[in-house]
């Protein structure tokens, strides 16, 4: 609830391991809210340890939406997520509650907070880029994307063939950069959403990333991936390319030692964090909080102003 007493969604964004989930839960308690997940990998059932998904017992009775809605054999889609999450937010508002949008998946955040109309698809154009993908591989195709649209390449993982193909398809169909289909970054956010970002210093965040990663492996991440593999998890899938899960699968293929598996997960997370920082920092609508301080107090003070 804002200072005027009107229910308004609150978005909590920022890099991995910055404390978004804890802040979101505290705000849900303080503002009579419900959580809407904006982490693309937490959409998947069974991907719990490696995504730092909050266990049910720790949610303290606060409803969480857009968690555990996909099987690992399904591809996560920003457009599908947008449709379903918008419905969740409007249902929460309709019941007089406060939607708390929590996550760091960059395109998913923008698709929910902004009224983003996705360009159409063309099976012929997409098929041509898929053939090109089969011919030269994802790394080379991503390099071709970087040559025509460096901004798109900067926010799409090098090893993500589906989004690389989609970006090239959109560029060809529209004749414009991929980002041109996105709404203006300074436009009023959907529902008047208040956007709170967690600002992190690398010297503070990097040790947290390493500690959390090692706790994930000590806590059973490898066993979790083994269970998911029995449910259809493969390396060449959206879920199988998730940080941590991809490294476990590579270890089983003999490409990484056990220690390299952990280290590559740490370095992959840090690389992803750099992209998150760059993406979220460009949004002038975000009010930044010191992640190392009293984030709940800072958030409530900001929302009351």
TrEMBL record:
Assigned keywords, A-Z: ATP-binding, Magnesium, Nucleotide-binding, Transferase, tRNA processing
Q: Where is this region: Interaction with substrate tRNA?
A: 39-42
Q: Which reaction does it catalyse?
A: adenosine(37) in tRNA + dimethylallyl diphosphate = N(6)-dimethylallyladenosine(37) in tRNA + diphosphate
The GO terms describing molecular function are:
ATP binding; tRNA dimethylallyltransferase activity
This protein's source sits in the domain of life called: Bacteria
Quote the record's binding site residues for ATP: 14-21
| Pfam families reported in the protein's UniProt record | IPPT
Q: Under which EC number(s) is this enzyme classified?
A: 2.5.1.75
Q: Return the InterPro entries for the record.
A: Dimethylallyltransferase, IPT, P-loop_NTPase
Name the Gene Ontology biological process terms.
tRNA modification
Which Gene3D superfamilies does the UniProt record give? Answer: 1.10.20.140, P-loop containing nucleotide triphosphate hydrolases
- Where is substrate annotated to bind? 16-21
**Sites marked Interaction with substrate tRNA:** 105, 126
Question: Which coenzyme or cofactor does it need?
Answer: Mg(2+)
Give the quaternary structure. Answer: Monomer.
State the NCBIfam families in the record. Answer: miaA
Q: Which family does it belong to?
A: Belongs to the IPP transferase family.
* Function statement: Catalyzes the transfer of a dimethylallyl group onto the adenine at position 37 in tRNAs that read codons beginning with uridine, leading to the formation of N6-(dimethylallyl)adenosine (i(6)A).
Q: Could you identify this protein by its name?
A: tRNA dimethylallyltransferase
Q: Its encoding gene is what? A: miaA
């Amino acid at each position: 609830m804002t200072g005027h007493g009107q229910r308004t969604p609150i978005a909590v964004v920022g890099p991995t391991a910055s404390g978004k989930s804890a802040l979101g839960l505290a705000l849900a308690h303080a503002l009579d809210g419900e959580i809407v997940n904006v982490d693309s990998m937490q959409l998947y059932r069974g991907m719990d340890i490696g995504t730092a998904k909050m266990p049910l017992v720790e949610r303290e009775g606060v409803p969480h939406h857009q968690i555990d809605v996909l099987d690992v054999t399904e591809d996560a889609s920003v457009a599908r997520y947008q449709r379903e999450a918008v419905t969740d937010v409007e249902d929460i508002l309709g019941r007089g509650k406060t939607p708390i949008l929590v996550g760091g998946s960059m395109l998913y955040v923008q698709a929910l907070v902004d009224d983003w109309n996705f360009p159409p698809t063309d099976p012929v154009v997409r098929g041509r880029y898929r053939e090109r993908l089969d011919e030269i591989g994802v790394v080379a195709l991503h390099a071709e994307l970087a040559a025509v649209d460096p901004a798109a390449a900067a926010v799409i993982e090098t090893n993500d063939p589906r989004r690389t193909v989609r970006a090239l398809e959109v560029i060809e169909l529209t004749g414009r950069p991929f980002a041109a289909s996105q709404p203006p970054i300074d436009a009023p956010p959907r529902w008047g959403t208040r956007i709170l970002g967690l600002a992190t210093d690398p010297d503070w965040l990097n040790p947290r990333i390493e500690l959390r990663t090692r706790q994930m492996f000590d806590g059973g991440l490898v066993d979790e991936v083994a269970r998911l593999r029995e449910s259809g998890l493969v390396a060449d899938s959206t879920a199988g390319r998730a940080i941590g899960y991809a490294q476990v699968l590579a270890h089983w293929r003999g490409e990484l030692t056990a220690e390299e598996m952990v280290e590559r997960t740490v370095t992959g997370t840090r690389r992803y964090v750099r992209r998150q920082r760059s993406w979220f920092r460009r949004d002038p609508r975000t009010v930044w909080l010191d992640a190392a301080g009293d984030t709940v107090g800072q958030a409530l003070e900001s929302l009351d102003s």
